Amino acid sequence: MYVITYSLRKDEPNSENFYNTVAVFTDEVLIEAGGLLADITEDYYAFLAEGKEELPAKEELPAKEEVILELLMLGILWRVYSGDAMKLGEASGRMLTSLSEIRQDAGRFKPGVDFLKGIMSTLFLSPDLYDNMLAADPDTNHFNMLLLWLEATGEFKQEVKRLRKWQKFLESIPHAKAVDTLESIFALTLWFEVRTNEVLGTFTPNVDRYLNEIRPERYWHEDVIFCGRRRLEYHLNMVGAEIMNRTYRKAFLNKKRKIILLPACMRILPAGKCRAKAVGGAYQCSECSVECSVGRVTKLGKKYGVEVIIVPHESSISNSGNDLIFEEDTGVIGVACVLNLISGGWMLKERGIPAQCVLLDYCGCKNHWHDEGLPTDINLNQLIRIMSGK
Prior knowledge:
Helix content: 40-55%
Number of domains: 2
Largest sheet: 4 strands, parallel
Structural class: alpha/beta
Mean pLDDT: 89
Radius of gyration: 20 Å
Distance between the termini: 30 Å
Shape: globular
Strand order of the largest sheet: 4-1-5-6
Number of helices: 14
Oligomer: single chain
């Protein structure tokens, strides 16, 4: 199998080894982070309990594991992008943020908006595409600049919402303590980077090759930032998916109705030949081929009483008018490539829907990764474990 950036299977027939490895490693991460960040977590809970940061109506106080995930995310996004963020002017940042917002409702003008966004993103957001991740010094002002950069990309909407809370928390404590807090987070980040390369690096063998040899073809495209995500971000999302599955498991199992959201890249036939039936802004499989991964998942879903919906893009999920997804008392099993998992899980949580994640064993969609598109697949055993409640 041709590996574009990552493969959960490596040279094995399935991804069972990956799921065992990431589960054990996540335990290690939570223990290490629990020791390094215990005081920060406690102070943050006190900050939230005092009502200094109002939570959305459908959200409760985050679990300890989710707080650790947010802190890891903060440190990793700072390590990867803060150097670029220091070079982005405020006017350029606001303009790009507005362009990303316009893109969401651009309709028939979307190709033109995407063309402009690709040019602007390449010029202003990543002028030094391989700068060895020269992170900015820990400072609350630099935090503001990082958030502006992340907003400008349009790729980190859910992440920014959570980082805004941490920004307010850091601004509520003395400056020296805020700097110490950031340095503690960065210490965990550096540990995480070294350990994930050792433990998870075999599942991301081609990320660096892709960035250096293939990604230049994405210059001037609107997904230049998305396709340029670093190996460290792949590892964050792998661990993040495991943390989310643990954190939201009980709430998911308590939901009466459950659905599986599959990406269109899992279909064996292209859009014009696939016989899936359009339902609202999504599709439902007609099981026309025994060789199609979507058909196999649909058959399994019927066995476990779980509906299966094909979504052409993540924006199809976020559409508040999609009645297929946003019914009350619904839990979601989201299937996606590694880079979409954390943001997708938080987007559903924001809507009051607990999610479980199943990673695509490899990426291959025509939109981002392959000119012709490679039909993707998942670990059906992992899906069964989630559906059966085991």
